[in-house]
Amino acid sequence: MSRRFPYVAAVAATFAVGVLAVPAWHADGQQSGTVITGKAAFTDYTQEKPGVRRKITVADLPEPYATKGVDNGAPMVKRSDGAWPQAPAGFKVSLYADGLNQPRLIRKAPNGDLFVAVSYSNEILVFRGIGSDGKYKQMEKFADGLSQPFGIALYPAGPNPKWVYVGNTDSVVRFPYKSGDLKASGPAEKLADLPGGGKLRGGGHWTRDIVFSKDGTKMFVSVGSHSNVDDADTHPEEFHRADVLEFTPEGKFVKIYASGIRNCVGEAINPTTGQLWCSTNERDMLGDNLVPDYITHVEEGGFYGWPWWYMGGHQDPRHAGKHPELQSKVITPDVLLQPHFASLELTFYEGSQFPSEYKGDGFAAEHGSWNKSNRAGYEVIRVPMHDGKATGEYEDFLTGFTTADGHVWGRPVGVAVGDDGSLFVTDDGSGSIWHVTYTGK
User: Fold this and answer.
1) For residues 124 and 150, is the Cβ–Cβ distance under 8 A?
2) Is 408 helix (H, G, I), strand (E, B) or coil?
3) Residue 20 CA from chain centroid, whole number
């Protein structure tokens, strides 16, 4: 038995075999068109269009190696003047910032400022206001000299946070903060080391997100795996990786909160239920349509399968016969996405600008595939929710980051809801931040 996992009882999920299209419902109970289901739900960028909904279930999954695993990274091209993200009818997309060095995760401060991790420059930027041209009024460097920063959290919750927490690739640090600060007023205070530092520094997934529980007593830090599918029993570099780790706000390690999550890039607290949720990159090289990336609630003590199992008890053939005792313990995620989507930051919509049916829904950035014959992703999706629970569907929301010939000019990374209820999207492909507003026109 592996020493890594706090095993818990399984949460079983049963899925009906999909048909081509079924009715979709808004959160307010109103019907809103159709959902593509079954094998037709697997798609690529040519079929992504704002408003299209899909639902993938475990019953739809192919056998491993039904197609060959490929290395099909997207050729990046410069955004042309006419290239622009596409949103559903009634929404307007503006360019809020450009010329940035690969902006990554974005989080809003209570006063409306936007904190953005510029990971490859090892800095955190702050953006304030919107000018008459639709672009930011002010940008300042909040902090630099970091170590591939990604996660950002302001703590405690409420109008007057005292700290800005940052998830470096090898540590959690925090800076003193008072509302309205555009620059850190003191040096970084190191709170905790994270896997990937020291002798095992580097390699594998490097992003580390941070969120706090709704009551502020727990700090959740996501740490992705070192590898695609190495046996975690025999590879010491996987220690405390592919996990969500729980710390106190002061940085004291408490426990592995959840395990077997290959790369929980984006964490968020569901405002309705108070549950931790995450947006996850799953494993590669089992074929075009395995294994689905996913968005899910994260259970305390929950096990999500990596590296031996996936999607509710399917064994990875690369680990055939290993850990049979875990099969019944694998939690099936709430929302199965396209395999190799590279699902990144997740946020829940609590604003009032968008139509009422968006309230409580999730938004997630899909950075785009490399391990798929026909590329998929390069979009922002909407995750419909009802009373804080996912319907299992997802909807294309912001598309158009690809060219007709399959080249890519933009790659969404971060999503955040502004003070006015609009949506901000970072794009590290074109070095931009996009601003999505609802006009009704």
Assistant:
1) no
2) strand
3) 27
- The residues pairing with 97 across neighbouring beta strands, listed in sequence order, are 433
Report pLDDT digits (tens) over 115-129.
999 999 999 999 999
Q: What are residue 335's phi and psi, to 5 degrees?
A: -130, 115
| pLDDT of the residue at 10 | 32
| Domains of the chain, start order | 21-438 (2.120.10.30)
177: tokens are: 């903060």
The answer to whether 399 and 86 are in contact (CB under 8 A) is: yes
- Confirm if 299 and 281 have CB atoms less than 8 A apart: no
The tokens describing 95, both together, are: 């360019």
- What's the half-sphere exposure (Cβ side, CA atoms, 13 Å) at 110? 14
- For 316-333, the pLDDT digits (tens) are 999 999 999 999 999 999
Residue with tokens 């206001």: 129
Confidence of residue 1 (pLDDT cuts 50, 70, 90): very low
Query: Which pair of tokens denotes residue 47?
Result: 């079929």
pTM here is 0.93
Q: How far apart are CA 419 and CA 129, in angstroms?
A: 10
Alpha carbons 344 and 327: distance in angstroms, whole number = 27
Torsional sign, CA 100, 102, 108, 109: negative
**Identity of residue 103:** P
Give the torsion through C-alpha atoms of 383, 148, 431, 174, to 10 deg.
Answer: 70
Q: How many residues does this entry show for the chain?
A: 441
d(CA 42, CA 38): 8
Q: What does the alpha-carbon distance between residue 151 and residue 210 come to, in Å, rounded to a whole number?
A: 5
**Bigger pLDDT: 79 vs 198:** 79
Question: Comparing C-alpha atoms, which of 296, 215, 299, 309 is closest to residue 257?
Answer: 299
Q: Which residue in 370, 247, 238, 383 sits closest to 308, CA to CA?
A: 238
CB-CB contact of 319 with 365 (8 Å): no
pLDDT tens for 157-208 read 999 999 999 999 999 999 999 999 999 999 999 999 999 854 444 579 999 9
Encoded tokens for 233: 């029993």
- Stretch 368-397: mean pLDDT, rounded? 97
Task: Give me the residue label for tokens 């010329």.
Answer: 99
Tens of pLDDT, residue by residue over 259-308, are: 999 999 999 999 999 999 999 999 999 999 999 999 999 999 999 999 99
Residue pair 240/310 in contact (Cβ under 8 Å)? The answer is: no
Q: Which pairing describes strands 385-386 and 21-25: parallel, antiparallel, or unpaired?
A: unpaired
